Task: inverse folding
């Protein structure tokens, strides 16, 4: 959907972008795109994003030198 947003931003019509995508094997209808665009993210998408942010916060840390490092919690259960 980001590709369609980019193309529309460059002045192309949604219908023509969807037509070209269908010719390439990606079945996207202009109506489906517009409904998706109008609806915004679902509640599930938002909760999943918050969960992923929390997992990243637990698994990664920044040391004094500014380097990103894995925390010991992120290695739990890893095979040796």
Result:
């Amino acid at each position: 959907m980001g590709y369609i947003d980019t193309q529309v931003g460059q002045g192309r019509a949604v219908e023509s972008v969807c037509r070209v995508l269908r010719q390439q094997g990606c079945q996207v209808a202009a109506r489906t795109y517009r409904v998706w665009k109008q609806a915004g993210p679902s509640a599930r998408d938002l909760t999943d994003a918050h969960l992923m942010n929390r997992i990243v916060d637990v698994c990664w840390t920044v040391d004094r030198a500014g380097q990103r490092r894995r925390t010991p919690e992120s290695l739990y259960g890893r095979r040796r």
